[in-house]
Design a protein that fits this description.
Chain B: Its main location: membrane. The complex is a heterodimer of chains A (497) and B (333). Helices cover 34% and strands 25% of the residues of chain A. Chain A is an alpha/beta fold and 497 residues long. In chain A, the strands form 4 sheets. In chain A, strands 6-7-8-3-9-10 form a 6-stranded mixed β-sheet, sandwiched between helices. In chain B, a hairpin with a 2-residue loop joins strand 2 and strand 3. Classes of the chains: A alpha/beta (497), B mainly alpha (333). At the A-B interface, helix 1, helix 11 and helix 12 of A face helix 9, helix 10 and helix 15 of B.
C-alpha cells in the first residue's frame, strides 16, 4: 500500500501544528520521522490513524483520495499505530491472549467453550511468528515493559496491517530489547509492510530506516534516502541551525575525590568500588538490569544497601532514606519524571524549592515567599526553565522544561554529588543540549556527577570516565580514548549474550 | 490573587451567591443579621470537621471517623466534666481527638491500610464505645462556663462562629504559608516525588489525621455546649456533611489541590441551604433530597465548567480544544 500526504494543514485554535506537510511511504519501506517535540509528528500520526481530521490537504492511498473519518476507518485500511503510551492500551488484569484479541475475540473464535482454547493457540502462533516466547495465559501486569511492547505489536499484527506506525518504541527498552524490536521491524518490511518509525535517537534511525523525513514547525525540512545522509544534516534539519556543539562537554574534573564507595552491595549489585572527583562526570555503562539503576537508588537511600561503605569528601556517610541522602548533600534525578520527580499539580516554583524549603523557613515554619521567589527565579533563569509564570502548574510545561525544572530542584539543593539516571529521556534535541549545559555548570561548581544513560552517544560524550557494569559488578573502567560506544557495548554484553 | 481568579478558582462562591440571592427574594427573614448568624452557628460544627477533612483529602486520603470521634470525645468530655471539672474535661476531650488521629494515621501509614477502610473501622469502634460508655443515654452538662462555649456571644457574634473563623484563619494560614502546608500539597500530589525530595511523608499524613481528630473534639465541645448535653450518636452522619463541604469547596479527592477558603464556602453553602429550607417550610424529608442534588450540582459544575465554557467558545470562534492526551486510547477503541 502506498500512502501519500499532500499539503496537509492542521490547527488547534491559534496553534498551527501542520503547515502543508507532504510525503509518501512506499510498500515495504521503513520511513523514519524525526523532529523536536512539537514539530508535528504526533499530529501526523493521529491524522494518518483517523484520530484527527486535517483542516486542508489530502491523504491518498494507492493514488486514490480517502477520508479517514475515525480510527475504525483507518484500521479497515490496514493502518495500525503503536503509541508511545502503549501501556495504556493494554488491560493489565487480562491475559496476553485476551489482550491480543480484545477487539474481535467473538468474531474470530465464536462464543463456544472451545473458543478460549482456539484463542490461546492463535495467540501463541502469532507471538511465535515474532519469535517471542511468552506464556499467553499470563496477565499483562506480570510482564515487563519490553514484553508488553511485543504483545502490543503482536496485537497489531493480528489485524494484518499494511502500514504500521511506531511512536518512540524504544523509549523504555534497553539495547538488547531494542535490537530484537529492530529485527521484527525488518522482518515486517521484508513482508511488504510499510513502517513509519518515530524516534529521537539518531543511531536507531540510521540503523533501521530506508528514508528519513524531518519535521520542523509543521513543515517537512528534509526528505531523503538514508544512504545520502549524515547525522549532522538530520540534526540541522531538526533544530534549524548549525549544531556544532550538540554535546558541549566542558572538562572540569579535579583531583579532589568527593564520592567514594568501597565494596558497596545491594539487591542486584556487589563489590562496587568507585571514586568520583569534584567536577567529574562518571558514566556507568551496561544493559538494563545490570544493577546500575539500583546502585544509584541505593546510594540515595531508596533501595537497601546490604554492605560496603560510602564517604563524601572523606567523611563516612550512612544513608537509609532520601532525607538522609539530601542531608549528606547527595541528589538523585529519577528516570521517571512523572512518578518520582515532579508534583505536577503544584507550581513550578513550589517544585523547584521543595527539597530546599527549610532554607526559607524559620522556627515558625512560615515560608518566606519573597526569598523563595527570588532564589527559585534565579535558578530557573540560570537553567533556562521556560515558564509563563513561576506560579503555573509544572505539569503544564513541555517535557524538556519539566526536566529542567527537576534539575533546578536539585541544583537549588546545592548537592556535592548528583546521581542522574536517564537525564534526557523523552526530551527533544534542543532541551537535551540545554541539559548538557546544566551538567557543565554543575561540574564547574565542583559537583561530582554520576551519569547512567541508555543513550550511548550521550554517555560517551558527557562522561570523563566510564565504568561498565555487567550482572551487578563493575567489569571495566574506560578512560581517555577508550571511552567509546564500541568498547562500552563489548564489555556490557560479553558473556551475557 | 485578584477577584477574577478568585471567582474562577472558587466556583462554590457562585453557588453561595446564587442560593443567597434566591433566598433573599424568597424569604424576608433570610437577609437579616440574626438569621445569617444562625446560619454560621448551625454550620460551625460541620465546618470544623471539614477543616481537618480538607487536610486529609488534599493528602489523597479520607477520614470517615470524624463524626464518631466527635461523639466519643463529647461523651468522654461530658463525663469527666461531671466528675472532675472543666479543665480536665477539655483535656480529656482533646486527648481523645489526638489518640483517634494518631491511631488513624498509624493505621494508614505504618499498617499501610487504605484510609477509607481504616477510618470506616475506627468509626464503627468509636460509635460502639460511645454507646457502651453511656449505655446509650445522653449525658447532661450543667457547667455554665462550658455551656458558654456554645451559647454565649462576643460583640453579638456567637462564640462557635468566632471559634470557626479563628480555626479557619489559623489552619488556612498553616496550609497556605508554612512548610507543613507545602508538604501536605506535595505529598498529596505525588507522595513518591515528595519522599524523594526529603519529605517525611508518613509523618505529614499522621499529623493531618491528628489535626482532624483534635478538631473533631473541638466540634464536640461546641455541639455539647450548645445542646447542654452529650449525645453518644451526636456526630452520626456529620463526617459525610464535612466531606461534602470539602468537595463543594473544590478540593480534589485525587489529592494535591484544594483550599480552606473553598471549604469554608462549601460549609456555608450547605448551611444556607439548610437554613433556607427551614425558612421556606420545606418538609424535612425533602431537605435531604435537595441537599443531595446541590452536592451533585456543585461537583458537576466544578468538573465540567471548562467543558461547558469550551462549548460556548467553540460556537463563537475557532475550536480551542488542544490535542488531548486521551486521544490514543480513543483511537484504539
Amino acid at each position: 500500500m502506498r500512502i501519500e500526504l499532500a499539503d496537509v494543514h492542521k490547527s488547534f485554535g491559534d496553534n498551527h501544528v501542520l503547515r502543508g506537510v507532504g510525503f509518501q511511504i512506499a510498500p515495504g519501506e521503513v520511513l523514519a520521522m524525526a523532529g523536536e517535540n512539537g514539530a508535528g509528528k504526533s499530529t501526523i500520526t493521529r491524522i494518518i490513524s483517523g484520530a484527527h481530521q486535517p483542516d486542508a490537504g489530502r491523504i491518498l492511498v494507492d493514488g486514490t483520495p480517502v477520508v479517514l473519518k475515525d480510527p475504525q476507518a483507518a484500521m479497515a485500511l490496514g493502518i495500525e499505530v503503536i503509541y508511545q503510551e502503549f501501556q495504556q492500551n493494554l488491560f493489565p488484569h487480562l491475559s496476553v491472549a485476551e489482550n491480543m484479541y480484545v477487539l474481535d475475540r467473538e468474531r474470530r473464535f465464536g462464543r463456544m467453550l472451545v473458543a478460549k482454547r482456539r484463542m490461546i493457540e492463535a495467540a501463541e502462533a502469532a507471538l511465535q511468528k515474532l519469535d517471542v516466547h511468552l506464556d499467553v495465559r499470563r496477565p499483562v501486569s506480570s510482564l515487563n515493559v519490553a514484553e508488553r511492547q511485543m504483545v502490543e505489536i503482536a496485537k497489531a499484527m493480528t489485524h494484518e496491517p499494511s502500514l504500521l506506525i511506531l511512536d518512540e518504541p524504544t523509549a523504555a527498552l534497553d539495547e538488547r530489547e531494542s535490537e530484537r524490536l529492530f529485527t521484527q521491524v525488518r522482518r515486517l518490511r521484508d513482508a511488504g509492510v510499510s513502517v513509519i518509525y518515530i524516534s529521537h535517537r539518531m543511531d536507531e534511525v540510521f540503523d533501521l530506516a530506508d528514508r528519513i523525513v524531518v519535521l520542523r514547525d509543521g513543515r517537512v525540512t528534509l526528505d531523503e534516502a538514508v544512504e545520502n545522509l549524515e547525522t549532522r544534516q538530520v540534526v540541522t534539519a531538526m533544530v534549524g541551525e548549525g549544531v556544532d556543539d550538540f554535546y558541549p562537554k566542558d572538562r572540569n574534573a579535579t583531583d579532589q575525590v568527593v564520592l567514594e564507595t568501597k565494596g558497596v552491595a545491594g539487591s542486584d549489585f556487589h563489590d562496587i568500588d568507585v571514586q568520583v572527583r569534584a567536577g567529574e562526570v562518571l558514566g556507568i555503562g551496561g544493559v538494563v538490569g545490570c544493577g546500575r539503576s539500583t546502585l544509584l537508588r541505593a546510594l540515595f537511600g531508596l533501595d537497601p544497601m546490604t554492605g560496603g561503605s560510602v564517604t563524601i569528601d572523606g567523611s563516612p556517610v550512612r544513608v537509609r532514606n532520601p532525607r538522609e541522602a539530601i542531608e549528606s548533600r547527595i541528589a538523585y534525578l529519577s528516570p521517571d519524571r512523572q512518578a518520582e520527580g515532579l508534583c505536577t499539580a503544584l507550581s513550578v516554583e513550589a517544585n523547584v524549592s521543595l527539597a530546599s524549603l527549610h532554607r526559607f523557613t524559620g522556627v515558625s515554619g512560615v515560608v518566606r515567599r519573597a526569598g523563595e521567589r527570588t532564589e527559585t527565579g534565579a535558578v530557573m533563569t540560570d537553567l533556562r526553565v521556560r515558564a509563563a509564570s513561576p506560579a503555573m502548574a509544572v505539569g503544564s510545561l513541555s517535557g524538556g522544561n519539566q526536566q529542567k525544572a527537576l534539575f533546578a530542584k536539585w541544583v537549588m539543593a546545592g548537592p556535592r554529588v548528583l546521581l542522574m539516571d536517564e537525564p534526557t529521556r523523552g526530551v527533544d534535541v534542543g532541551a537535551k543540549t540545554e541539559i548538557y549545559r546544566i551538567i557543565n555548570k554543575l561540574t564547574a561548581d565542583g559537583v561530582a556527577v554520576v551519569l547512567v544513560s541508555s543513550d550511548l552517544p550521550e554517555l560517551v560524550a558527557m562522561s570523563d570516565r566510564v565504568v561498565v557494569m555487567r550482572e551487578g559488578r563493575i567489569v571495566t573502567e574506560l578512560t581517555g580514548d577508550r571511552v567509546n560506544e564500541q568498547s562500552i557495548l563489548e564489555h556490557a554484553l560479553v558473556g551475557a549474550a | 490573587m485578584n477577584l477574577k481568579t478568585l471567582a474562577n478558582r472558587l466556583r462554590a462562591l457562585w453557588m453561595l451567591l446564587l442560593v443567597g440571592i434566591i433566598l433573599s427574594f424568597a424569604s424576608p427573614v433570610f437577609l437579616t443579621s440574626t438569621n445569617l448568624l444562625n446560619v454560621g452557628l448551625a454550620a460551625s460544627v460541620a465546618a470544623l470537621l471539614a477543616v481537618g477533612q480538607t487536610y486529609v483529602i488534599i493528602l489523597a486520603e479520607i477520614d470517615l471517623s470524624v463524626g464518631a470521634a466527635l461523639g466519643f470525645s463529647a461523651v468522654v468530655t461530658a463525663q469527666v466534666l461531671r466528675s472532675d471539672g472543666l479543665l480536665p474535661a477539655l483535656a480529656a476531650g482533646v486527648a481523645v481527638g489526638v489518640a483517634v488521629g494518631l491511631i488513624n494515621g498509624l493505621l494508614v501509614t505504618k499498617a499501610r491500610m487504605p484510609s477509607f477502610i481504616a477510618t470506616l473501622a475506627t468509626m464503627s469502634v468509636l460509635g460502639g464505645l460511645s454507646l457502651q460508655l453511656t449505655s446509650g443515654n445522653p449525658v447532661a452538662v450543667t457547667d455554665y462556663t462550658f455551656q458558654g462555649i456554645g451559647q454565649n456571644r462576643l460583640a453579638g457574634i456567637p462564640v462557635p462562629v468566632l471559634i470557626m473563623l479563628v480555626v479557619f484563619a489559623v489552619f488556612g494560614f498553616v496550609l497556605a504559608r508554612t512548610r507543613y502546608g507545602r508538604f501536605v500539597y506535595a505529598t498529596g500530589d505525588n507522595a513518591e516525588a515528595a519522599r524523594l525530595s526529603g519529605i517525611r511523608t508518613q509523618r505529614v499524613k499522621v499529623l493531618a489525621f491528628v489535626i482532624s481528630g483534635v478538631l473533631a473534639a473541638l466540634a464536640g465541645f461546641i455541639l455539647t455546649a450548645r445542646l447542654s448535653t452529650a449525645e453518644p450518636t451526636a456526630g452520626t452522619g456529620l463526617e459525610l456533611e464535612a466531606i461534602a463541604a470539602v468537595i463543594i469547596g473544590g478540593t480534589s479527592l485525587a489529592g494535591g489541590r484544594g483550599t480552606l477558603v473553598g471549604t469554608l464556602v462549601g460549609a456555608l453553602v450547605l448551611g444556607v441551604i439548610d437554613n433556607g429550607m427551614n425558612l421556606l417550610d420545606v418538609s424535612p424529608f425533602l431537605q435531604d433530597v435537595v441537599k443531595g442534588l446541590v452536592i451533585l450540582l456543585a461537583v458537576f459544575l466544578d468538573r465540567n465548567l471548562d467543558a461547558l465554557r469550551g462549548l460556548v467558545t467553540r460556537r463563537s470562534g475557532p475550536g480551542d480544544a488542544a490535542p488531548s492526551s486521551t486521544t490514543p486510547e480513543l483511537a484504539r477503541q
